[in-house]
Structure formats: structure tokens, C-alpha cells
Amino acid sequence: MSMHDVEQTLDGIDYLEFYVSNARQAAHFYRTTLGLLPIAYAGLETGSRDRCSYVLAREGVRFVLTAPLVPDHPIGAFVARHGDGVKDIALQVPDATAAYNAALHAGAAGLLEPTVSEDQHGRVIKATIAAYGEVVHSFVERKAYTGPFMPGFTSLTPPDEDLDTGIVAIDHIVANVETGMMDRWVAYYRDVLGFRQLHHFDDEAISTEYSALMSKVMQNGTGRIKLPINEPAKGRKKSQIAEFLDYFGGPGVQHIALESNDICATVETLRTAGLRFITVPATYYDDLNERVGPLDENLATLREYNVLVDRDEEGYMLQIFSQPLQDRPTLFVEVIQRKGSRGFGKGNFKALFEAIEREQDRRGNL
């Protein structure tokens, strides 16, 4: 099986698994703030003796929140070092064995050989390879499975109260890696998974008075899986990437971009639910129409919700970043709506990063 074949066999993101200290409480947070619905559970009651997992989903988004049930567990060690964070960016494939073998042949480190699990709903085949830091990629083959998530999980009845936040998919997942390591991981995704580089932003394009970073966007052939990779660049003060690496304790997932079909309605719902967003100066909107041209959205509404806009030759996109989802200044979410543009808001980088730096300064980390 060639690398080109591997690239063709990635159907999309199957799920994101987070390692957390308390899965029950984390599930409550993600349900009440992002509107994800609990659909499956594994724990002591289902025969899982060392860990507990809640699966939350809506539309094309599926999060698995996993916590240790016993002391001195590897999941507990992950959380002690990193805080709550993304462990597994799982990829859905038609043939997990072929995908795993091809990845190993291309130089990946194998962590879990293709493993079959079965129950009354059918069978799932899963295999796992290593990626940056402690992040892994599982290949998940579920074409012969009809259950709520996978064997070992029991279905959960969603609550009567449904917070519809308008989130429909995962648009992209961003990695922060150490200085000098971005190109190594770009090559990894190119060689092992057949990704191609979509964009390259250097430190001249992504810099403020204080900090700079470099970023390359890796994407699979269908465009369904987009994994930008950032590394810090030398600046006058500590960059947001350096702050992440310090508090996360190494490379990891910096943010998850969630797609909405109506970003202002989504942000209003998320804000009401308690999610906090970073804010940009009102002056950003003074010449917005001159910068990006005519928009379907009302300028006053965009200003009210602090939504940023960027246009390229294919259309425009709207975006906003949340504040960190947990105590450490590490993982956050982006809400994004695409109106033709397949870009990543290059024109907004300066405004966004200055806003992030204001938050850094409040934390004493600039």
C-alpha cells in the first residue's frame, strides 16, 4: 500500500479523546457550554476497571472524555503533567490494518496494533500511532458497527434540556510544537499520512510588537482533516506558543476550531452558557468593510460579538477565539464560519494575537 493510498483512505476525524481528571464533571462542562450531547459511557458499570469515558457528540463533532479510576495510572500522569488536554486525534478509515501498516512502513511509531473489539452491534478495528508530544492518532474502522460508539460502551439517553449551539463540525485542530520542530512534523504528516501543505505563515506575517510564530497548515487530500502546526519564533517577549509549551509541559493541541453556519448566533449562545471569548479593540471594525468588502452580516452585530472577518480570493471567513477552557492557559476553542474562504484568517492574526497578548499580560506571562 503506497503513501498515496494512505492519503486516500482517511475519511475524516472520528473523535477527539481528551484525558481529564474528572470525566463526569468535564462532560457536564462540555454539555452545558458547547451543547454536545452525551451519547455513550464506559466505566465500572460496563466492565472498565481502570478508566471512565463519556462520549459527547453533535452533528460532526465527537469528543471522548476519559479519566483514570485508580491511582498511579498513566492517564493520571498525563493530566498531572499537562492538565486536561487532547490525547487522541482519531481518524476514521475504511481499513485500519492497511492504514496502520502503511504508516509504520513510512516511519511511524506503532503504539497499538490493529485490535478487534466486538459486541451485539458489530465490530470495530482500532490501531494507534504516535504523533507530536504525547498526542496519538488512532485509525478507527467502524463500517461493520451500528452501536452508540464502540464495543465496551453503553448508550446514554441525552438530557431533556438541549442547548443547540449551532456547532456542526470540527474545522481544524492546531498543534503547538517546540522551536525548530515544525518542519519535522510537517514532514511526518506528509510522509506518514500523505498530507500536503496548504498554507505557510512565517514570522513576518504572524508577528506583533512582542511575539512571533511560524505556522504551516497540513491537510489531507479531501480537505476534511486540517492540522495546522505552530512553533514559536524569536520575539521581544514570550510568545503565546511559548506560554502554551511552558504550561502544557511540551507540545500538544492548542485549539480546536468548531464550525458554525451562523457564527453570531453560536457566539451568543455560547456566551450565555458561560464560555468566555477574547475581545478585540472596537477600532478593528472602523474600516472593516474597506478591508474585506461587502458582507452578508451586520457590522454592528459582528462588533457586538467581537467576530473577526478575513477575505481571500475564494470568499471570506469569520472567526473568534475563546479564552482557555481550563485553569492552565493551554487549550481553547475557535468558532469559525466559512463563506467560501478555505483560509485561516491571515488578515486577523495581528488583531487576534494582540488580544491574546492582553490576556497573557493579565496572567503575568507576557
Automatic annotation (TrEMBL):
Domain VOC as annotated: residue spans: 12-142, 169-323
Cofactor annotation: Fe cation
SUPFAM superfamilies associated with the record: Glyoxalase/Bleomycin resistance protein/Dihydroxybiphenyl dioxygenase
E.C. number: 1.13.11.27
A Gene Ontology molecular function term of the record: 4-hydroxyphenylpyruvate dioxygenase activity
Gene3D superfamilies: 2,3-Dihydroxybiphenyl 1,2-Dioxygenase, domain 1
Enzyme class at the top of the EC tree: oxidoreductase
Keywords: Dioxygenase, Iron, Metal-binding, Oxidoreductase, Repeat
PROSITE patterns tied to this protein: VOC
Family: Belongs to the 4HPPD family.
Alphabetized NCBIfam families for the sequence: 4HPPD (TIGR01263)
Name of the molecule in the record: 4-hydroxyphenylpyruvate dioxygenase
Organism per entry: Candidatus Chloroploca mongolica
